[in-house]
Design a protein that fits this description.
This is WSC-domain-containing protein. The chain is mainly β. 10% of the residues lie in helices and 32% in strands.
């Protein structure tokens, strides 16, 4: 291992950072992950381990990495997906045992905020998530065991596009598809669901309206009746009932 070999390898993989450590290890990324910090003593690396491929160079030390950059464009967390109504809702915990979004989505062109949300929307979903740099997940409801965490937890660079972040290991970057007027359920901490509000049924009149109005002079709307049916103890179902004869 040499500094030059590590830099060349990372450059070929389209990363903007290269790091050497322990004399023989090379690491690449397009972002510096947290909680990394500068070593307390500058000499921790300069007096570290000689590179195995060139003893005149140092390649970091034990628990110390020397980082080099080509100054390329740093990745970003896409807040609003271009040319769409998808918007970022936050970074959430996720696990194989309890998924935030239940449906994995294959994206042959590679996972980014743009490609994952488009694939989920085409499949009829309103929630999309990016995870571990390469995974795309879809659903119409959110799991209930997730926790909203800092955006810093979702800093894995997308494998398909190193200018974007795609969640992280066990961290999912969540997006929601809003209506054209900006309304929608959005996303909330802990797998938030749509708000449920109790309403007095006497405030409403339920009607059924024909898509194609009848031509025989019959009403274009028919009143609906709501029947509360207790089929299982303590479980009440609402049944809509209507009769119409043409």
């Amino acid at each position: 291992m040499t500094v030059e070999k590590c830099i060349a390898f990372c450059k070929d993989q389209d990363f903007i950072f290269a790091g050497v450590e322990f004399g023989q290890e090379c690491y690449c990324d397009s972002t510096i992950q947290f909680p990394g910090s500068l070593a307390p003593e500058p000499t921790d690396c300069s007096q570290g381990f000689a590179c195995t491929g060139n003893s005149s160079e140092t390649c970091g030390a034990r628990g110390r990495i020397e980082i080099f950059t080509n100054g390329g464009q740093a990745p970003v967390l896409v807040e609003n997906v271009p040319n769409s109504a998808w918007a970022y809702q936050g970074c959430f915990t996720d696990s194989a045992a309890s998924r935030v979004l239940a449906t994995p989505m294959a994206v042959p062109v590679g996972v980014t905020a743009e490609t994952c949300t488009a694939a989920c929307q085409t499949a009829g979903f309103t929630d999309a998530g990016l995870e571990d740099g390469r995974e795309c997940w879809c659903d119409n409801t959110l799991g209930t065991t997730s926790t909203h965490v800092s955006d810093l937890d979702c800093r894995a660079v997308c494998v398909a596009n190193h200018t974007e972040y795609c969640g992280n290991a066990n961290r999912i970057a969540l997006y929601h598809l809003f209506d054209d007027d900006g309304s929608g359920s959005g996303g909330g901490g802990g797998g938030a669901q749509n708000e449920c509000v109790a309403q007095d049924m006497s405030n409403f009149t339920l009607v059924a309206r024909f898509n194609t109005p009848p031509s025989n002079g019959a009403p274009q709307e028919i009143p609906l009746k709501v029947l509360l049916v207790e089929m299982v103890p303590s479980v009440t179902w609402t049944v809509l009932s209507v009769s119409f004869y043409d």
